[in-house]
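ingest -> fold -> write
write: protein_1
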Amino acid sequence: MTAHLTQKENFLRVAHGEMPEYVPVSTYFGPDAPLMTMADPCILGSFRGPGGGIDPWGVTFVTTKEIEFAALPKPNDFILTDITKWRDVIKTPDYTGFDWESAAKADRKKYVQDPNQTAFVLSGYADIFQQFIGFMGFTEGLCAIYEETEEVEELFDYMLDHSLYITKNLLHYYKPEGYYLLDDTASKLNPFISPKLFKELLVPRYKKCLDLVRDEGVPIFYHNCGRCEDLMPSMVDIGVNVWDPAQTENDLVGIKEKFGSKLAISGGFEYAMPKTWPVVDEEEVREAVRDTYKKLAPNGGFIFNGAIASLDFQDPKVQEVNGWITDEAQKLSRTVYN
């Protein structure tokens, strides 16, 4: 198959609910240009980077080798211990004098090495749930949601004003090609809160940000790891275009059948480390990729993204297996829509 669209053009077709020429393949583990940037604007700082740091609200983030230096809120160092006292503790970040125009130019240059291949997708910092958990921790935070719901809602509204400020300026100055809502609300087994509470507490607040984005015609990417399929109908209703990463704990075939081109599935693949590790059957790995394509690629709405289930990205054997996965995915990419 001879492709006429660039990698980015083809990828954005999927993000807009249109039929692509070929299946986009994420290449985070290879030398190729990524499909999208998935970047924080510089106004937020670099706390989510490998060095950790302090976020705009004052939460300290730390890293460890065991999780490949991904930043997480510092354990047992919560800035809010009593939800009823949040007004005394939580203060909106002050961005007085920030030069949005210069920041937009600098960030685009920093994150997009090849504008023909990589879509400029930015976080709008609308991750209200995870930010709240960063304030209080999971135990106290979840208890507060159930025991002091009205206080939590008032805090969420206060946080939302900040998200709206960031989002409005991103849309105006950055002109992004995608908007990324990163807010993990599920574990490997189930959501952290019920779908009912999710719909009542979070969805209306997400919608206020996403309405701004949809009005500009910018596709919306929603990051939620784990088994969160129970939450997806509400998110599709408010305009989410791409679920990234759609992990295999979910009924992805059922989701695809239900939403069709309204919701693109980005992910859909994970290869479990076998008991025989480091002995791995290459053909078995490649067959798993082919099986994923058979289930999720028909009629579009699919972006392949996956790897072996290991965080040890520097392990030569992990790199070899991920190489097989990417190679097979790229081979299939140009054939399934012939």
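write: protein_2
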Amino acid sequence: MTPPDTDSAVSRPRVEGDRELEILHAALDVLADAGYDRLTMDAVATAAKASKATLYRRWSTKQALVVDAVCSQKAAAPVPDTGNLRDDLIEMYTGLGGMRDPRGLAVLAAVVTAMSRDEEFAETYRCDFIAPKIAASRVIFDRARERGEVADGVDIPLLAGALPGIVLHRVFLLGEEATPELIEHVIDQIIIPATTCPHLPTASE
């Protein structure tokens, strides 16, 4: 679908502030209720009580609108720096407990599905949403290595992705809740012990 190409659409002011948030929240509602495939600019415009031209003045594509909507759910938080790895990870990831919210789960499920079907959306989502989170996680583990909490040879990129991966597996495949207790248990039983393991050769090596 291509955006309207009219002089009036270009000359009017861009959507911002509270009105922008209203549209983003409407987009999340449509995403949760209908899924990514059936989300259209028309559907979001109807839910937000706005014109389609209004949406296109701010978002040129459906992909851009959905990514902004997902990113709007939580403001970017500063990278924790408590002085030890365990507390940094707990502070950073206990927010995953929000996945107990049915609407939040529906949105996340729609996003995962969309990434497998829409490469343009997947690339935008990885760049705008996932990449900053990976960078923040790397900062935490790099600081821990400098403090001597992470052994030389530990694969930090692999280890940094293990915590959210395990939690998401238990939520989506096992039907558990992402409680703070679950997150702390994964940190204490898997992540922290793994930081002290030196590099081990793989079967191919």
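write: annotation protein_2
Confidence is low (pLDDT under 50) at residues 5-13.
The first helix runs from residue 7 to 11.
pipeline exit 0
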